[in-house]
Amino acid sequence: MIEAKGITYKYDSVTALSDVSIHIERGLKYALLGANGAGKTTFLLHLNGILRPLSGKIFCDGTEVTYDRKALTTLRRHVGVVFQDPEVQLFSATVAEDVSFGPMNLGLSFEEVKRRVDDSLNACGIYELKERATHFLSHGQKKLAAIAGVIAMEPQVIVLDEPIAGLDQRHKEMVLDIFSRLNTNGVTLIMSTHDIDLAYEWADRMIVMKDGRVAGVGTPLEIFSKGDLSISKPIVLEIYERLISRGLLRDNGNVPRFRDELLRELG
Asked: Is residue 5 a contact partner of residue 21, using CB atoms and an 8 Å limit?
């Protein structure tokens, strides 16, 4: 779906990405892990052309990304970005105006724009906020409105930079439910997060970054079976391994990823 080949990027004299090569498969959920300054956000911003690599190439559906206006417009139809801070994305007077901005710039008919706006607001559970001024929204509502604006573009890939940061439990669950439904409908998701437990449960694949490089790529179990990636283990896996090491559980090869799975193992 998307491939980065040897991309390098610098902020002035500081190297943010160094020879990063990653292949993103269609229809999967990816968790992007790493400490602050590891290069996660910089990498994500390359995926829809917000940043342009100093060297290396980005490919979308096998086609090399170029950086003229027409090519970037096409790329951004396919790859949407939800920023960590929704204030960065919301700039129109009302929620409906903000969500309609992207589809309108695609030159769609009024009827199609209205359909996309209504569908995306309903998908995010905020249709009743349609005419609400964006500056009167709570942080959680702003996050949902920003996600609705991306969904309205009907992208094949959505890049998520710390999408649950600062959310209360209710809005966190709402956002994760939206992502699950999108993925069920075939949308590829790439989520940067510091929440190890969430990443372990949620992701099909994990990408670990360190000092601007890719330190590891694999399934959650593959990643956490490596001891040299400088990331802590999720609590479910840590408890499971300790119980086995103390002879309190038998290793049957079914390593739990969810709390309920671990509880079932405990009987």
From this structure: yes
